[in-house]
Write a structure and sequence with these properties.
One of its GO terms (molecular function) is transferase activity. Residues 287-342 form the AFP-like domain. The protein folds into two domains: 11-47 and 83-267, TIM Barrel (Alpha-Beta Barrel), CATH 3.20.20.70; 276-341, Antifreeze-like/N-acetylneuraminic acid synthase C-terminal domain (Type Iii Antifreeze Protein Isoform Hplc 12, Alpha-Beta Complex). It has helices at residues 24-37, 49-52, 75-82, 89-98, 110-118, 134-141, 156-169, 194-202, 216-223, 250-267, 279-282, 319-322; strands at 11-15, 41-46, 102-107, 124-126, 147-150, 174-179, 206-210, 228-232, 287-290, 305-308. Helices cover 32% and strands 14% of the residues. The mean pLDDT is 95.
Length: 342
């Protein structure tokens, strides 16, 4: 299982969610698309409408009318539409392993963990809304596998309690994801500056579960230390789907893979000064050169001495000290000006 951390390139998780649109073939095509784009893992969600909520037509079970994507929809009907049927899990896991990427899931109740254990899921993701379900976190951690905890909406106290529950129950690793749990999420509310704060507070690897549009936010997150990026994916936003509006298409996922790694490589070190690949450039800094043929006894003037590339002569700032002096020897055009010539 991959370790997440600042010494490794960002780990890219493609979240399928409900973008299979009720089709197993589409779900498998999403696995293939994620693999082709270079994602490290494909994640699904393991729940049914009945394990998440009740089929009750009451306002407390209904999303606000003003919700950008699911306004007025009842939770039960939304989850019925979005869930991944449990008998699809095996073929999805099999396809991912055939394609060389890691399949895993977010469990939402104990029966989901039972199913995922039978599939030998290599790790568990705790969704933001489940961060306060400490018994669920402990159950996932008790498998001894890595646990990834998303922190959308959570307070510092809630995050600390979830991490303590996972570590105390035996999780082999814990990774925490900064997250803004709105769909789509406004970039201005993503607060990437909290990533190093979480890292310092928890002394754990920190990633980003991102629901903004595009790849700008997750690439920027890498500069703040994010070691794992989770993004929802779809085959084509035009096809619709519960999460398609803020999901990446395969070409964008591939670009995220490439640009997040480029951003990570660019972090480099705190070294200030020429790098190995800049050494050739040092040769072509400016210096003072004889720019016309001169004879001994000629006066140094702006017409016969100038600052040009490459190096080899006196520093450009020496021009005021050499103008008006006399050449002590003949010098051809292209000769570096040195003190022994004047």
């Amino acid at each position: 299982m991959a370790q997440f951390g600042p010494d490794k390139r960002p780990y890219i998780v493609a979240e399928m969610s409900g973008n299979h649109n009720g089709s197993l073939d589409r779900a498998l095509a999403l696995v293939d698309a994620a693999a082709d784009a270079g994602a490290d893992a494909i994640k699904i969600q393991t729940y049914t409408a009945d394990t998440l909520t009740l089929d009750v037509k009451h306002p407390r079970f209904q999303l606000s009318q003003g919700h950008e994507l699911w306004g007025g929809e009842y939770l039960y009907q939304l989850y019925e539409r979005a869930h991944t049927p449990w008998d699809w899990h095996q073929p999805i896991f099999d396809r991912a392993r055939e394609r060389g990427i890691t399949p895993f899931s977010s469990p939402f109740d104990p029966t989901a963990i039972d199913l995922l254990e039978k599939l030998d899921a290599p790790m568990y993701k705790i969704a933001s809304s489940e961060i306060t379900d400490l018994p669920l976190i402990r159950l996932a951690a008790a498998t001894g596998k890595p646990v990834i905890i998303s922190t959308g909406m959570a307070s510092v106290k809630e995050i600390a309690a979830a991490v303590e529950a996972a570590q105390g129950a035996g999780a082999s690793e814990v990774t925490v994801l900064s997250c803004t749990a709105s769909y789509p999420a406004p970039p201005a509310e993503t607060n990437l500056r909290r990533i190093p704060v979480l890292a310092q507070m928890l002394e754990l690897p920190i990633g980003l579960s991102d629901h903004t549009l595009g790849i700008g936010v997750p690439v920027a997150a890498v500069a703040f230390g994010a070691c794992l990026i989770e993004k929802h994916v779809t085959l084509d936003r035009a096809d619709g789907g519960v999460d398609s509006a803020f999901s990446l298409n395969p070409a964008e996922l591939k670009l995220l893979r490439e640009e997040s790694e480029r951003a990570w490589q660019a972090l480099g070190t705190t070294h200030i000064g020429p790098t190995e690949h800049e050494k050739e450039g040092l040769r072509f800094r400016r210096s003072l050169y004889v720019v016309t043929d001169v004879k001994a006894g000629d006066t140094v003037t702006p017409e016969n001495v100038r600052s040009i590339r490459p190096t080899g002569g006196l520093e450009p700032d020496a021009i005021s000290a050499v103008l008006g002096r006399t050449f002590t020897t003949d010098a051809a055009k292209g000769t570096p000006l040195t003190w022994d010539l004047i």
